[in-house]
Each structure stands twice: as C-alpha cells, then as structure tokens.
Amino acid sequence: MPVVKTSRFEINYVDEGEGFPVILIHGLAGDHSAWRPQIEALKNDYRVIAFDNPGSGDSSLVEEPTSTSYLADAAIELMDQLDVERAHIIGRSMGGAIAQHMALKQPNRLQSIAMAASFGKLDPVGIQTIRNMQELLRWRKSWAEWAPHALLLFVTPAFYNENPAIIKNITELISDEDRDMKSYDYLATAVLEHDILDQLGAIETPALVMGGRYDPICSMTSQNWMMDVLPNARLEVFENSSHFFLMEEASRALEVIKSWLANNSS
Questions:
Q1: H/E segment holding residue 237
Q2: Residue 266 has pLDDT above 90, yes or no
Q3: The domain 3-264: what is its CATH number?
Q4: E-strand stretches of 17-124
Q5: Is the Cβ–Cβ distance between 97 and 191 less than 8 Å?
Q6: Three-state DSSP class for 49?
Q7: Spatial CA neighbour of 33 closest among 158, 174, 186, 222
Q8: Which of 41, 57, 63, 66 is nearest to 2 (CA)?
Q9: Where are the domains of the chain?
C-alpha cells in the first residue's frame, strides 16, 4: 500500500475510484480497513481515500503526547500530497473529532463533514469508559484480554447475542498483539482531551451528526451538545444501535451517507 510522508508521520492509505473526493477517517481502536464496506459502496461514484491514523495500522507510531488537532494537521497534509483541493470528510468516533479541527483550520477545503458516533466533548460516562479501556490495557498489557471487555461497549446486547460469528471475527481482529499499546494510550488521551464545543459554532460547513441511541462512548448527550452549537447540522439517530451503528444498521447507515454526499456535492 502507498505511504505519504507528512511533517510528523508516515501515513498509510488506500485511494480507490474516481470522482469528487471522499476522505474516511477511522476511530481510536481501528484502522482504514474498518471502512472497507463503505469504500466498496462509494468507489463507483467518488474518489475514496481511507488512511491509517498515526499510531494505527501501518502508519507511523505515536511516540509522544499528541492531540486531535495534530492528527488533523496530518490529514490536511495527506490531502495536499494527494492533490485533493476539496473533499467530503467522513469521520467515525475520533475521526469525527479530527474532522472538526479540519473544518476549523481550513474550511475552504471541506465540502461537508459527516460524523459517526463522534463528539465535540465526551460526557462523563464517555470519559470514564475510555479511561477504563485505557487503564485495562495498561494493567494487563494484552490486546487479547482487552478485546472482550471493549467489544461489549461497541454493540448492543441484542446484536452481540444474535451475531456470534461477527462478534468472534471482530474480537480476533482487535486482539492483534502487533498493535502498538503506547500509540493507543497517547491517542486515547487525545480523545479524552478533545473539548472544542465552544469552537464548533464557527463551523459553517454542512455537518451530518449520526449517533447510536445506546452508545455509552459517544452518547446522545454528546450528539445533542454538538447539535446545540453547530450552525448548519442535521442529526440522524440509529435507534437500535450502539457505537458501531455503521455495522449494526449497515444498510440504513450507508443510505444516509450516500444521500448526504449526493445532496452536498457540487
């Protein structure tokens, strides 16, 4: 896979399809492969770029404290090097926080932003949930032990009970012991420190806010906080899902995203 060298990191990415660019930014515990269903669904109509955030996948490790603002700088540099003048940005969880900084730093580069299970500031339950996952990894130093605890926070009980094969597959993926624990720890701290609700009112870029009704990490409280301050935003709630509603209600989520992109493209 190709790599772009930014001022701070080497960024691993995929670039598929042709048309107006759509950039996909994954969350804290994932990498670009989390977007594979969306890449396949969108690449016939758009140029779809998905990358591994620093500290994730095959991109550079994060070896010192970082922030969602620094991660946004890396994403903007990726756009520069791939000759992307303007793009739709879709971010899930931490990726949505990164997209907010991109919209504040270079609003003329963003056609729209869509934030899936994201936050301008985590609520107290979300903060404690991330801290719990962060501390468990520090204590046990094992992704295999961390994974079953984390996965219960990502999906609803009904989805967990009814989809054992999917749950087994996801557990195996996030149990990969090759993932860098120090990078995750720094990224988790960046998530905990992301609090820019007082700045979101300056984002005039069209924004789609998507939330899972039962998400304990990026709760409906966090979604509503964003809606209270974003001046040009639409809310979509996934009533039967948790943090991973892009998987739990995959068909509806994809249709919402496709409609959003179509309605906000030049």
A1: strand 233-238
A2: no
A3: 3.40.50.1820
A4: 21-25, 47-51, 87-92, 110-116
A5: yes
A6: strand
A7: 174
A8: 57
A9: 3-264
* Per-residue model confidence as pLDDT tens digits over 90-147: 999 999 999 999 999 999 999 999 999 999 999 999 999 999 999 999 999 999 999 9
Q: How many CB atoms lie within 10 A of CB 84?
A: 18
Token match 């309605």: residue? 263
CA distance 1 to 48: 15
Record the pTM: 0.97
Residues in the chain: 266
Amino acid at 48: V
Nearest residue to 218 via CA among 101, 115, 117: 117
Say how far apart CA 6 and CA 75 lie, in whole Å.
Answer: 9
Q: What is the DSSP letter of 52?
A: P
DSSP assigned state of 33: G
> Residue 129 and residue 210: Cα distance in Å, rounded?
20
Specify the residue for token string 């070896």: 63
Residue keyed to tokens 């409906």: 220
Q: Which residue has the tokens 């969108």?
A: 42
Distance CA 104, CA 113 (A): 11
Band of residue 254 on the pLDDT scale cut at 50, 70, 90: very high
